[in-house]
User: What shape does this take?
Amino acid sequence: MFNKFIIDNFDFQRAIIRDSIVFEPFIVSDNDLISLQTALDTALIRPDDPLLVFTINTTTLCLNLVNMIYHHVAQGVADDTAWMVSFCVVCNAGMLFSPMVHDKIYHFADGGFYNAMTLLTDKETRSVWNHITGHCLHGVHCGYQLNHLGAPLQKTALQVLGENPSAMFANSQLASDILAELQTDNAERLNPDLQLSPRALSTLQLSDDRLPRFDMGLGIWTPTTQRFYPYRKIILENAILDSLDGRKILIYVSPVGVAPEAIYTTATRFEWFRDILKLDNGQVIREGVLYDADGGVVIAERPQQLFQRWYSFTLLFANCEVYK
Assistant: This one.
């Protein structure tokens, strides 16, 4: 699915490898899970807080994105399926994997920094893994590929509840001083003029200068097409209709959302009516939720997508397209 050069050209000398686990991952137990509605009602989160959202079988799970800036990794079991989510605040991307390695559950954590992105390590062997592709880059399991379970979406609690009132929230509790630092990091998370230390920047090797390296955008991929939609172009109209492998897709930014999203659609035109996006197939998007002509919630079909920085997408897909 991703470009093999990430494995073949891994430069250990360029990487920052940690000697110990600095940021403890969030190991999610049943006691940490509450309904998303309860989390809102008890002020554990606010309606506009950013969440990482994903589905395991029939269970929709939400992680506090700001807390994940600290943890980098969350891991648990849902519907008898082991899962692991990574997140990197610098590239603003993360992925959902099975943590099974040779039929055994491994335990992952932040292990360093490479190509201006988080590196994962497993606590069992301290091998080094790419946090988006799931490829093992160095160590005992070099060349092994974690099973990819999907890409978490970045949504607000309000959006998630509109689509799935039974969604569950994994409650991670951090000290107040750590939370204060995380809020500062979150404020810089989407800054296109991101500043990295010289040592962190030295881990990045990028030759594709079609866009500024830290530009934000929505990266979309299928087995045959990989395309990057610069955020600044999406927000010009707050929606784009495009074609992807012969199908129409709609990329939009909801007024209550925290990230652009892409869905497949049969619509050929759209118009904004105040904060409502009206499509000519009778569907509307209101408060970030897709409804049909009768007012029923529609669970949209989506291409694979990540709201991330340009450098991280082009390192994954070296020959990707850029939307013009």
Notes: The CA atoms of residues 92 and 308 lie 5 Å apart.
